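Cross-check.
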Amino acid sequence: MFFNSEYSIATDDESVNVNDNNYSRTYPIRSGLIYKLKADKIRQHATSLEDLIHRSEIAMTSEEITSLVKELEKYSITVVKPDKVKDKQRLLEKIKHDYNGDFNQVFDVGRFTILCEDHIKLKTAVMVMKEAKQFNLIVSEDKDFFDKQSKTHHRFHNIKLYVPKHDVYVEMQATLKSYTTLEGYSVIEHPKLSHLFYEFIRAWEPKNAKEENLKQASDETLTKINDVICGWINDKAIQKLASCYKSHSDIGILRPAQLFNKTKAEIDNNISLTMAQFVYEQLCNFMPTQTKGKAIHWLLYQYYKDYIIENKNPASCADFALLLKQSTKQEMEEDITILQALETYIPLQANNYPCTDNDDNGKHDSYDCHQRVVDLLAEEKKNEQEYERNIMLIQGKSGSGKSLFCRHLEEFLWESYTSGSTISIPLYISLPKCYNELNEKQIISQALQMKQINKEIIDAIRENISFVFILDGFDEIFDKYNKNDSDARYFYDRFNLNEWNAKIIVTCRNHALNDGDIKHVLIGPNNMTTTSMIYLWPFSKEQMNGYIEKFVKMNKKNKMNDYSNWATQQYEETLSNYPNLHKMIEEPFLLRMILTVLPSLMKQHPTGTKISKAQVYEAFNEQWIDMHIKNISDKLSELRIQMNPKKIKLAFQRYCQDLAFEMFIQQNQVATENDKILSKSDSETEMDVKNVDKGVEAKVNEIDASGANTKHFWKKYFNNGNASKRNEDDKNQNVKENIKSESQDVWARYFNGDSIAKYVLRRVGDNKYQFLHKSCQEYYTAQKIIFDILSCKHNILDNIDSADQQFETYVQKLFINYELLNEELGIIHFIAERIHDTNPTFTNLKPRLFHIIEASKTSVHVQVAAANAITILNAANVNMHYKDWSNIKIPHAILDRAFLEGTNFSNANLDNVTFYQACLNKANFTNASMNGIYFGEYAYLEGHLSAVRGIKFSPDATKIMSYSDDKTIRIWDASSRRLLHILEGHSDLITGVQFSSDSSKLVSCSRDKTIQMWNVMSDQQSQVLEGHSSGVTAVQFSPDNSKIVSSSLNGDIRIWDVSSGKQIQMLEGHSHCVNAVQFVSDGSKIVSCSNDKTIRIWDVLTGRQLRILEGHVMDILGVKIVDNESKIISYSNDKTIRIWDLSSDQSIILEGHSYGIAGIQVSPDGSKILSYSDDKTIRIWDIFSGKQIQVLEGHSHIVGTAQFSSDGSRIVSGSRDKTIRIWDVLSGKQLQVLGGHSYNVIGVEFFPNEPKILSCSYDRTIRIWMSLLIDKFS
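Predicted model, tokenized:
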């Protein structure tokens, strides 16, 4: 009997010769014969893979298989025949991997799936298939994996049938419908998932240990998935897995870092990358709703986290948020200063404009800053298709609470994110801590890495997560930022913020950046940015009272001073005794500082005494240091170690001064303790920042028991004097070269070995320290500079006349000569306050500053010190009238609002000095060098949304009118510069605007073919005059304001009645566009000029043309009536000006310009004409002779506007070169260049009664400039 075999039978007499195959076959044996039997497992005999596939396709539709299928279907069993057999490529892979290349061993080229409703039908199906011999089929193999697990944990009963007729296998795989993953029949969600997963890993041959681990994990994960699908684990366990499920939309699964910057080909050729891509896509796209589906998703996600992401990075946005939040929490817990400050946090008030000394802090139009920021963050984009940058710029004074506000906002935004009310994650970035000028574009990435986020996951975070970036302290990095060599100025571009989906909040000190810097660095191009300007306002009385109440509660808990028993009322009463503190306590940080030291201030200063800000800081910093010394002293006393607290205090103070000055020089508010410095071979010698006491104990234990040298012990903790010694040594070397160290170890001397001096600092990172507040660093820097000036023991600075050479040498080495203080107003003010300090220590400060200025007369090497000295004296409001400061060298000094009447600056170097609103009557500037000197630009008028085309003063000089391509007219108060009205009504570009002579009305004209009249006292439109059939080019009131004349592009001129708005006359005669119209002084006639090359004079009453003047050969652009209406001046594109004598109709031709003339003006006395042209020049002509008097050259582009001053002695001009220039008419000398506009200057005007200039530009702004010293120059 042969069973399930392929066999042969032969006898020795060759009477029997059988070759067959059967599942079961019996043959009789005859006696007397010798039989030779051969048997082997039934196999296929295809000649090629293609032949095998072909046979399988035929067998699956054969009569034998069809009969079996019909038999199964009689029992209501579902038999699924695939649309086609397995594809060739898939088979080739399987043959190579599983059968060593022998395709005839493949048994499942053709497969049927038998699906049963229950176990009974499954048993029936198996029984029917086992009787397949009745259908001429051989049961070659019977494997039951329904009650025992297969390799992949699929649950099925496999029967392999041999079809003799076609010499091929067909597989019959039976299972329950609830376990199948066959698409179209499965009840499992996403049934293809396990098959796809299997296809990726079945032929995987790992190339290294890492791949081996991933392959093993993949196999295990597939097994777990199949356990869920096939019910190998119970329902309770599946439910537990499903309960962990979070969808991609809920947690935001992050793309694996290894896939970034990889091409499709690179991914396809690397199985690890292919697997990462596959799993990521499945997790993102598979959104199950049923229990098993959720369990499968969770298993796949765990595999993704553990083996694709490898648990070293967050796998989802939710994981990232949790990690970032934990890091932020740890950072906050380590920053005790901020935690305590948050306990006393009081909501800040703000406004859309900065608070001035005249403003009421409790003003009704101020608003809650926190709520305004939250509201702005919540605003949706008007058009989601538009790319829009959302930026908030929060400005406030030093100590106004900017950083604390940011930290409080960060807490609120985290709460909002956690509760699901917002989708944006807050990221607070201390710019002084994170900014690196060598790697600006990666500032966000660096900030995240400092919060324990690995670099490799940054791309995935950038791709998936929405942020609110809170960039705190821009003013503290601006000096470095501004000096950095970069083509871009706008911080958004420099920091590469366009790569992030984020709204941006930036904080900055008031006045740390000038208006131009704020515009170009922080606001940027208006067409791409929505920037909200918010100005923090000082505390109101109510806010101060609320703060004091919170401080009292916190003081009882934390003992900020020795007076924790003081009540709110006691603080308020004590403050009332010192009126000059009232302004200081409007700033949150100063209020806290003053409350902390108020009891000690009360002891030092009698009631009513004027206490300076420097004195407050002195008291606070002394108390701060005393607190740390007491802690150390108490511990050492317990250990029976003697110390001298006074010496320790001096060492601490010197350390703070040295470090503060180093920070000033390095332009960095954060000192970094180098990792190399911290690393020790003996771990006991490393002091834990968070536990000074343990560090002290460790050191004490190292001291020899027989008697340690206490002095030697303390030297270790204070760097052996290295920090201070360095600054002393600097005085014997080239100061600038030595101190401006670029080494990464610049801070090493401040964290040398076991220094505990650093514990007076605020720890803001693992190895980063800064002072309690930037103003504390400024105070210590000021102290170092002051005591350096006062430290001369030989009175060199007090006997300048007797020791000039020695004196100059000494000044060169002073710290005040190291660097200009201009960007450090806090340092300047601290030094300035000491000038008026009654403490005898500071008596010599003022005279020595004057002597430093005098020293610059003979030495260029002390000009930095001299500039700083005079800036400090000015900040202290020291009277500097009638000083003989000839030859002094003070480039870049700040002398704004200085008292300098009668001061002699002859031959002085005043390059880049600012004299904004300085008192300079009778000051002498003879032969002074004044390159880049600045006499002040007032805050510009901003609001227009497009190019500002024109500006005019009202006749009564109280208002400024501007009109723009944004189709609006704006009216501003000339003295306060506040916007009064926005006049909207024109639907096309405005071409002209004029005030009525009584300043009560405006008339405007436009390309929209209308003329509109407006009431200046309101924003109400009073009349719309319609009738022109083309754009209106010009409009003017008659002298008595009863009529209006207008002209248009089609050549007609119309006269209108102001009261009724009706047209009175239509003047026809010009054949082309009329460019200008003007009433004569009595209103009886009108003069017009046109592109038809003619000038015409009209009678107003009759509308009759009285005269026509011809001579120009090109378009006539404008006309002026002069000399009691006896002459008309015209200018044309033919490069000429003509002066027409109306008595003879003859003209004088003024020639000289080489390009078209842009405009002309007549001097106030009527004797001169100025003309300005596309040839970049301004020319002055004698009106009577026509001779050219001056050619004013200096502009580098087309001159588009120019005006005489009211006395005719000066000219102001504006150009496409973006500058405004002031000229002396008599000499033709250029007196001043004003730069600030970022595009073409279109209009300039002198203020009627003030030494100021008004300008407007394509850059959308109107600017006001000082011109105080022009008389002195001329």
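The longest strand covers residues 2-11. Residues 890 and 1018 are 49 Å apart (CA to CA). Passed to J.P. for a second look.
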